[in-house]
Design goal:
Length: 436
């Protein structure tokens, strides 16, 4: 007799498709919330409450121990602290895809990697050419990255009318170039190096690796170690968010409890009828605790941490980041400053040209392969969507520009991202209608 209360049988493909589908759903929903946060920030920054709203993010909070000062502005804690978790989750997703997912195939992984490389090189070259010799030339990093949540949100508008492989291509590409951008931030937008703090940071990373080898599996322990590593990097002059990238890529993908061992442990628990489980039975309670731990450890640390943190990043950290950084005072801003135009050109033209051309070269040279169902027209449409650089672009703009041009740079980012979204969505509408 079949037990109708049993769940569906587990297939090997579930370990790849289910985490990927969950990631896409969270990113799509987070994109909508992120848009609301942007509109709210713009509204408040141009309202009667403007002064209080903008001053709020400059509030200093933290701790001081003698000569050690760990007070920072609220915006700094958001941009350098909370965003570290954003990059940590991106690194977890990248490692899962490379080790467990579709990107295990080197030729499949080579296509989004090549696209990401072109999507960094071409827009940066255009930006530097347009800004040569002008103030703001140092802000070339603003045109490098793609906003994962907004891109996936745009694709969600089309449901199953677009190839699923297009979502994988753009998600992988966005993660590759976001990680590339944060590496550039760490070393291109850092300060004078404090070698002692940097050494302590790498010592902390070594301790994390040693704890993993010893079999320590407590999440709070790694959270404390990660916080210590972040503080060391924050004091070192290297941008602290690099800690999130490094620790994410170090997270193991191997499960501790195999399926066979899990079934054996659960079998011991289920062998005892519920009514026979006496209160105070130490052996019975030990089996229950062991079963609970076994269920938890039957998922890899990468999957568990991603499931735990991704909703917090998508629905809390990114909207808070948008509120803190997207507030632009429109009054008095020069809409045709060179930095605004250079950013718009880099995002709207440089990103799609770089992504499409480098992807085409990678396939033609045999280094990469097109995934089934993925065609060049869809890659071209997706290439325009990669010009949505909102989160990382604002993040880098805050580091690269002084107050005299920061608002103009943010205006270029918002304008370029909006125009890229309109062009990409319009092309996808045309392609899906033509397919019908």
């Amino acid at each position: 007799m079949i037990d109708t209360h049993q769940g569906l049988p587990h297939e090997a493909a579930d370990s790849i498709t289910k985490p990927f589908a969950r990631f896409l759903k969270i990113e799509a929903a987070a994109g909508g919330l992120l848009l609301l946060a942007v509109l709210l920030a713009l509204g408040l920054a141009n309202s009667p409450w403007q002064e209080g709203f903008l001053r709020f993010w400059e509030t200093h909070i933290g701790l001081t121990f003698g000569s050690l000062d760990f007070t920072r502005s609220l915006r700094h804690w958001i941009n350098d602290g909370l965003m570290t978790l954003f990059f940590f989750v991106l690194s977890l997703e990248l490692k899962r895809e490379l080790v467990l997912g579709e990107l295990r195939n080197p030729r499949q992984a080579a296509l989004p990697f090549a696209g990401a490389l072109g999507g960094m090189i071409v827009p940066v070259s255009l930006y530097l050419g347009l800004m040569s010799g002008q103030p703001g030339m140092h802000g070339w990093g603003t045109v490098m990255a793609t906003d994962t949540a907004f891109v996936i949100g745009c694709l969600a508008l089309f449901g199953n009318r677009i190839p699923p492989t297009l979502r994988l291509f753009l998600l992988s590409l966005a993660i590759f170039d976001d990680v590339g951008a944060i590496l550039v931030v760490a070393f291109g937008y850092g300060e004078a190096l404090n070698w002692s703090a940097l050494g302590l940071g790498f010592l902390g990373i070594g301790i994390v690796a040693g704890a993993s080898r010893l079999g320590i599996r407590s999440v709070p322990v790694y959270f404390l170690l990660g916080a210590a590593v972040w503080l060391c990097f924050d004091a070192s002059g290297v941008h602290a968010t690099i800690a999130g990238v490094i620790l994410g890529l170090m997270t193991p993908t191997r499960i501790w409890v195999s399926d066979a061992r899990l079934r054996a442990i659960l079998g011991r628990v289920l062998a005892v009828p519920t009514g026979d489980r006496r209160q105070g039975d130490a052996a019975s309670h030990r089996d229950l605790r062991q079963a609970g731990r076994a269920v938890t450890e039957s998922l890899s640390p990468v999957e568990r941490l991603e499931m735990m943190l991704h909703p917090w990043v998508g629905f809390a950290i990114m909207p808070i980041f948008a509120l803190a950084n997207a507030g632009i005072t429109i009054e008095g801003v020069d809409f045709v400053q060179p930095v605004s135009l250079a950013i718009i050109v880099g995002l709207v033209l440089g990103k799609p040209i770089g992504v499409f051309v480098f992807s085409w070269i990678a396939v033609r040279s045999g280094l990469a392969a097109l995934a089934p169902g993925l065609s060049w027209p869809f890659i071209l449409a997706g290439s325009f969507l990669t010009g949505i650089g909102f989160t990382m672009s604002l993040f880098i703009a805050g580091l690269a520009f002084d107050s005299s041009v920061l608002n103009a740079a943010k205006l270029g980012i918002l304008g370029g991202s909006a125009l890229s979204a309109i062009l990409g969505i319009s092309l996808l509408i045309w392609l899906t209608l033509r397919m019908r």
